Protein: non-specific serine/threonine protein kinase
Amino acid sequence: MSSLTRLLQEKRKNETSKSSPRTSADTLTSTPESQPLDIQARNRSSSHVSSVSNSSSNRIRATVPVPGSVTTVTQIYSEEDSSSTAGSSLDDRNQFSSSFLNSNFAHTASFYGTSAQSKERFGSLMNDQGAAGFSSYGGSLAAQNRITSRLSATSHTSGRAIPSLSSSIPYSVPNSNKDNNSSNSNSSSLSSSWLETYAGGMPNNISAIDSNVISSPKVDSVEPRFVISKQKLQKASMDSNNANTTQARSISRSGSFSSQLGNFFFSKNSKESSNPNSAGMSFPVNSNGPSPNIKNPNATNGSTAIPKPIRARQSSIYSASRQPTGSYTDNFYGSPSSVHDHLPPSQSVPRSQHSSIGDLKRFFKKSSSNNLSSNNNNAIPNGSPLSNGIPVPSHSHSSSHCASGNNPYSTSYNGNGDTIYSHNHGVSGIPFSKRYIKTGADLGAGAGGSVKLAQRISDNQIFAVKEFRTRFENESKRDYVKKITSEYCIGTTLNHPNIIETIEIVYENDRILQVMEYCEYDLFAIVMSNKMSYEEICCCFKQILTGVQYLHSIGLAHRDLKLDNCVINEEGIVKLIDFGAAVVFSYPFSKNLVEASGIVGSDPYLAPEVCIFAKYDPRPVDIWSSAIIFACMILKKFPWKIPKLRDNSFKLFCSGRDCDSLSSLVTRTPDPPSYDESHSTEKKKPEGSSNNVSDPNNVNIGPQRLLHSLPEETQHIIGRMIDLAPACRGSIEEIMEDSWIRSIDMCHLVEEDLSFKVVRGEDHHHTQVDQSEAHIAGLEKKKKKQNNQ
Ligand SMILES: Nc1ncnc2c1ncn2[C@@H]1O[C@H](COP(=O)(O)OP(=O)(O)OP(=O)(O)O)[C@@H](O)[C@H]1O
Structure:
């Protein structure tokens, strides 16, 4: 037990004797009869916000260890909190259709805590009424009835955050979040002064966190898994270049994609220009699908008719972008400037002096007109199914900006049952609305915007087009453009079969549209069909992990992994989408970890450290979320609605371990290597089998509570993935080496000449569902219909 915990316990012990007796529900240790797991989350999502809001009134209490029991750090919950913990057991699967569906329409949540002035938990949901819905659990289905509670919940936020999980780990984190966390980031543990400093009123720059007692771990050396080797980064960088690409694709050392573009847009002459909030997607419609999601056609000068959002996803790249190490344009050959000036790829590009939204317009216009200069690299190979005989430019806007342009993974079919992933083509200089037509219904909408189906006129190929949301009233143009550009740049830079390909981004009629390859199904819809075989689930899981492995290998973390952010094509290839929350955690040739900040992600998939620390390593966060995805696919339920002690299911999961508090569990560090083999093996047993000291056979408590519901061969590695301590959680490399993972017969692509062919796993086929239910929008529609009947 840390001295801090002891200190707090003593302090609280005194308080306890004065205060009213706590209820049994307050303890981390729970009896088997305690509240079962719960995923009926739709109407309780506001409790997340509320509890945060009310945290200043929460109090920390500690109990003295009782023999045969487990010492706990307890919380006194608000009524709202405790009401959120009722639920159903994991085995109670009959609620799958409704509750899982409802609760899984979780649009990304983020907590601006450390940076936003108001420390509100923002969110947005673009809905047809033009109102912003607010969700942590809810998407559009449940948004309406939650708006009120969220509005009120956020009106009295106050914040408290534990500085950094790894602040005591000797990374040098270059200028990390200097702007908002400088005063906290160096505290290696909470001292008694913490109480004095924060117990009363919270400073403005601290976000509210449950009143868990945390002390960051002290370690003497950097764990190897935290170190990104130069070789690895170089290899990853080389892998992502294809033979024709002379431009550098690696992530440049410096802030972030968006920061560099931000420099481009905003470095000087911050002049007002046209408003990004206006007309809807302006391509012609050839179907009876719903009209475009027009939010504010009349808005001008930055004002918007969209109601003030309560929550919004934080542009995490933006956070990282505030690190002025180097310059993006210093070595980013695909920058707008470089395209405009036709510089050879090897030359550095000086930082642009353009700024503001006007620059965004110019950015796209110029690149459009200059795109032909880089066409040769992107021409469709003759004979390719996509080739129409003439070399056409690829990524009509994008290739010039984000060092991409040769992603070979766009999908087409050769008529022989093989999927061909070949280069893209487009026609630059022609307005988007003349090149694409909208077909069919909407695919989905979330915090980032709405996604619709579109057909490219030149070759009838279908694409998913994301129309980025308009700028929030309280969002600066700078933040807005940074968010958009970072998502786009990441999208166009990534190059992997399990990552969605961004074809181009278009700025037209004051709308920003991202054209992506289209996948026929949302993984969520497939899971909802309840038809997936176990082998199919394993295949999808391994594909997700493969995508994560790729991301981590190039220094990026997704941070919003969830079923909704996985799509799957007809060939059974799973792709990760939505990089609006992604962060760079490592830059090439640097061994430094760039910590992420903010509560970003979707409640049920959040790793516990995200809710506790202001800064954290984003990699283990992805690992945790991936495990939750797996559990959801198997159980058709969320194990808990949010990883906080006020969630009884999560509390039960945390209970029964040989540890005295959640803080201690989350800040544990790996055992040092031991020469004694047998001793070390015993110590490194998975959590599920070793930590449940109260009763190892009690499957209602501790990690076993979740693990026992999963197939036996999966329990070891899933247990490693949901280790409460991120420092002990398995790395993606370790996970991929697991014997069960290795044994999964995964559908994948193999390269054949210039195209890629799908090799299907032999022990399964991939479920397909009717297109009317293949995407979240369709499922929502169906649900609405059912409700109206
Ligand atoms: N390339 C694609 N192919 C098929 N469907 C897609 C594609 N991209 C997005 N979608 C659909 O659109 C939905 C919303 O997309 P996305 O997650 O990018 O938006 P978002 O606004 O960032 O959402 P969220 O707030 O949930 O993170 C997805 O859940 C999916 O149903």
Q: What stands out?
A: The mean pLDDT is 60. The CA atoms of residues 311 and 352 lie 33 Å apart. The longest strand covers residues 436-445. Residues 534-553 form the longest helix (20 residues).
